[in-house]
Amino acid sequence: MTTARDRPRYGGRAGRMAAGGWRMASRGGRRRRRGRAGGEAAEGGAVLRRLREARDDLLSSGFWAASAGAVRAPLGGSAEPPARCVCYGLGRFSGCPAARHQLAFLLLLLEELGVPPGRCSLFDPAFSAQEAAALGELGLRLLPDNEEGKHGIEGSATLFYMVHCGKALYNNLLWRNWSAGALSKMVIVGNSFKGMEERLLSRILERDYSYIAKVLKGTEEVALPAHPRYLDTFNDTSIHWFPLHKLKELSPEVWDFVEEPAYQDCDDLEIIRKEDRGDGCSPVAAES
What are the DSSP E strand ranges found in 107-157? Predict the structure, then answer.
């Protein structure tokens, strides 16, 4: 278990950011090369500029301030503040405004939590090499392989940011951390579990996404507020956490079945599996 560090608890730091916003990491005093290197640098600067604009939109629209109650909710009790973050399925943020606003929201969230960018790891097989480089310039890390959501927290309180990901990804994540001790250290920002329960027939939910079905009674959920500017960007998005006392109230049989999900009978599997995209490596790993 990671030792607790002094970390601010949603003290509003993100809303009080300096006007300059996020900046590319310094490359030293060398003069930039002309040609291709200069063009790539200009493109990277444009990506970061659009990201700053997205951040400004979130702040000026009031959406970030309105979301404060939801993002504070997991720490309202005795929950341990996240020490690190894993992000799946962000998408092509260089060209997609919705993905860009989701990334800006994530960066604001990390600042509020006091989680250093270097302790946030991302994976999306759709990332271009340019986007991977931009994330690196922001100090974020890329996961080298497609984990299919099967990321163990290894004792560290962890925030999972998974906006608009497929149900199988959430199910895999729960399976990988299927114990009361591990789940109680997790916060998931992503598609509403309540919404999944309402939209799916119970037999389908229990057959194909059994870990989501089993954890519902041990879950606390607060929805992000609706905002006319971000209806498509954050629709159906909630903050989920799993209080230890609620998990302990679940039937002991819930914890006995720990078979890895296979999805053999699932007709609409919303997940990119390792075998679906080459070796399942990130753009950086693929180039190395």
Answer: 120-123, 141-142
